[in-house]
Amino acid sequence: MRLMLSMLIFLTWSAFSWAQEAPEGPDRSATGGATTLEDILARQRGEKVDSSYRAGNTGQGNVEALIGQLGTRGTASDSDLYRALRYGTADVTVSSRSPGAGVLIQDAGMWWLSFRTGPLRTYGSYLLGGTLVALLLFYLIRGKIRIDGEKTGRTVTRFNGFERFGHWLFGGSFLILGATGLIALYGRDFLIPLFGKQGFATIALASKWIHNNIAWAFMLGLVIITVNWVAHNIPNRHDLKWLAVAGGLFSKGLHPPAKKFNAGQKIIFWLCIILGISISLSGLSLLFPFELPMFTKTFVIANATGVPELLGLNLPEQMSPHEEMQYAQIWHVMVAYGFLAIIFAHIYLGSIGMEGAFDAMGTGEVEEQWAREHHSLWLEEVQEAEASGGAASPAE
Ligand code: HEM
């Protein structure tokens, strides 16, 4: 009886004390408190794993471990060392003065890698592919936008040499940057099967060199088109009328009046400026690693507006130098995808999509009837200036 009573008390007490000591979170008793397979799988699934159970377990302060017999690190295990590197407690001394040099393991790198090769590329490809399909459908349904009226055989100067130089510097460099950027993003998948690893390495190296250096021409082009055209892209009352009928793009014979640039072109222009500045800044940050971090500050400002929270976004306000670079890379590519999709539509309308449009950027001279249909108010201004004796100024 006494024996049974003492066993009962012992069992109750041990069950109680076990319940007290049971660690929170997943049961790691099978691994003696160390990382379990489930921890690893959760991390690979991209779930947030609370690493506090091992973050401090780095062998630091364990003097006996340091004076043990197993070599220069004593009995400190590899796992201790790697945990210390991973959680930033290892005393890493590097000769490089780069801010990121002391970071040897960075967990967020895995998130970045899988986002870059996963959703970023998937949705980006949908956007570009979808835009091309939409343009093909537009072409099949609407056909080429023709000059409706009788051609006059007379031409008007639409853009002078400097305006065309600025356009082609900006647009040409953009196309080269787009092509070489896409090689960086998709090249491994499409070019290695075609040229082999050695061949791809040469292409990738050349492509990266071109991408990094053409960037300067793009930025110069951005400045030139801004200076040349900003004044013509201030919105005016005609833009609303133009937008109300979608510029007549979907209906034959409808030509809303417009000055030098119509509302659609103004939208393209401002998108080029905003996306051009954004892609240049993130590009500069990538070109000079760790020297121009921008995302921590941007996220602090963005979080203060409360908008990211409403969207369910958790933007980090503290990050390692490498994370800064990873965000710069992701942003750079996201902007590039949007920019390319817009420019696909622009190139279509500026070339095969609209009769007479390419001449504006080719020779600079457009058919007078084309100008009457697409930029009637601008044509009137040019002709009035000519009639009053002044040279037809493309700046009108
Ligand atoms: C083969 C490629 C391209 C062609 C055929 C082309 C054609 C044209 C044409 C014909 C115009 C003048 C439209 C008019 O007279 O009203 C124009 C304007 C313009 N282009 Fe391009 N372009 C090309 C590439 C680009 C690229 C890559 C960019 C920017 C990254 C760009 C940005 C602009 C801008 C901002 C304007 C002034 C606003 C506008 O007309 O929308 N172009 N382009």
Automatic annotation (TrEMBL):
<dbReference type="InterPro" id="IPR051817">
    <property type="entry name" value="FDH_cytochrome_b556_subunit"/>
</dbReference>
<dbReference type="GO" id="GO:0009326">
    <property type="term" value="C:formate dehydrogenase complex"/>
</dbReference>
<keyword id="KW-0479">Metal-binding</keyword>
<keyword id="KW-0408">Iron</keyword>
<keyword id="KW-0812">Transmembrane</keyword>
<dbReference type="GO" id="GO:0005886">
    <property type="term" value="C:plasma membrane"/>
</dbReference>
<keyword id="KW-1003">Cell membrane</keyword>
<dbReference type="GO" id="GO:0046872">
    <property type="term" value="F:metal ion binding"/>
</dbReference>
<keyword id="KW-0732">Signal</keyword>
<feature type="transmembrane region" description="Helical">
    <location>
        <begin position="168"/>
        <end position="187"/>
    </location>
</feature>
<keyword id="KW-0249">Electron transport</keyword>
<feature type="transmembrane region" description="Helical">
    <location>
        <begin position="214"/>
        <end position="231"/>
    </location>
</feature>
<keyword id="KW-1133">Transmembrane helix</keyword>
<dbReference type="InterPro" id="IPR016174">
    <property type="entry name" value="Di-haem_cyt_TM"/>
</dbReference>
<dbReference type="InterPro" id="IPR011577">
    <property type="entry name" value="Cyt_b561_bac/Ni-Hgenase"/>
</dbReference>
<feature type="transmembrane region" description="Helical">
    <location>
        <begin position="329"/>
        <end position="349"/>
    </location>
</feature>
<keyword id="KW-0813">Transport</keyword>
<feature type="signal peptide">
    <location>
        <begin position="1"/>
        <end position="19"/>
    </location>
</feature>
<dbReference type="GO" id="GO:0022904">
    <property type="term" value="P:respiratory electron transport chain"/>
</dbReference>
<comment type="similarity">
    <text>Belongs to the formate dehydrogenase gamma subunit family.</text>
</comment>
<dbReference type="GO" id="GO:0009055">
    <property type="term" value="F:electron transfer activity"/>
</dbReference>
<dbReference type="InterPro" id="IPR006471">
    <property type="entry name" value="Formate_DH_gsu"/>
</dbReference>
<dbReference type="GO" id="GO:0009061">
    <property type="term" value="P:anaerobic respiration"/>
</dbReference>
<feature type="domain" description="Cytochrome b561 bacterial/Ni-hydrogenase">
    <location>
        <begin position="158"/>
        <end position="363"/>
    </location>
</feature>
<protein>
    <submittedName>
        <fullName>Formate dehydrogenase</fullName>
    </submittedName>
</protein>
<feature type="transmembrane region" description="Helical">
    <location>
        <begin position="123"/>
        <end position="141"/>
    </location>
</feature>
<keyword id="KW-0472">Membrane</keyword>
<dbReference type="Pfam" id="PF01292">
    <property type="entry name" value="Ni_hydr_CYTB"/>
</dbReference>
<dbReference type="GO" id="GO:0036397">
    <property type="term" value="F:formate dehydrogenase (quinone) activity"/>
</dbReference>
<dbReference type="GO" id="GO:0015944">
    <property type="term" value="P:formate oxidation"/>
</dbReference>
<dbReference type="GO" id="GO:0008863">
    <property type="term" value="F:formate dehydrogenase (NAD+) activity"/>
</dbReference>
<keyword id="KW-0349">Heme</keyword>
<feature type="transmembrane region" description="Helical">
    <location>
        <begin position="267"/>
        <end position="288"/>
    </location>
</feature>
